[in-house]
Structures are given as structure tokens and as C-alpha cells.
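Hi F.,

I've been meaning to write this up properly since the lab meeting, where we talked about keeping a consistent format for the predictions we share between groups. The idea is simple: the sequence comes first, exactly as it goes in, then the C-alpha cells exactly as they come out, then a line or two of notes. No screenshots and no reformatting. I'm using this chain as the first example so we have something concrete to point to.
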Amino acid sequence: MWGCARITDSGPVLRLGDPRKRLSKRELYGHPTERCMHASSIASDRFESVVLGFFEQGLRGCEPRTGGWSWEELHAYNKALDWTEWEARMLQGP
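Output, unedited:
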């Protein structure tokens, strides 16, 4: 199953993993060569569409600012994101 941390995570990594196994912090943020790699049957163009769509949806309306965002602002921004439209679009396919 594909998964990724929230858009506001300090190090979001998109990964294919086992939904029955929760990764440790070391596994989540370790060097890529130390991570278990799984194969996927998703076509490369579909994969690209989903990943780009994820960032486009997650960053919609988010403007960069000098000095960055506070953790409180990031959490509030993340909580306000509506993923319903994106999920429906992704389930429809290309």
C-alpha cells in the first residue's frame, strides 16, 4: 500500500509498504539505502500523475513566506486541507 506523511511533515517520503507494519522513526527517516523497497505495478505515468496531484492539492493556496511557518500554522493548514476531491479524482484514474 502506498503511503505518505502529511504535506506539512518535515520530511514526507512517499513509500510503498506493508499496511500491517508500522515503521519506526529510524525506518521512516533513514537513508534510502537502509529502507525496504517494494515493487509496484503502477504505470509510471499514473504514478507521476498521483504524486504531482498530491503536491498540487496539498500546496494549493499555500504561499511561501519569509521566515517560514510556525508549527501551529502548519498543523492548522494541514487540518484544513480537504482531500475529498483529490481522492475521487485519483480513484477515477488518468
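Notes:
The first strand starts at residue 2 and ends at 3.
The radius of gyration is 15 Å.

If this format works for you, I'll send the rest the same way.

G.
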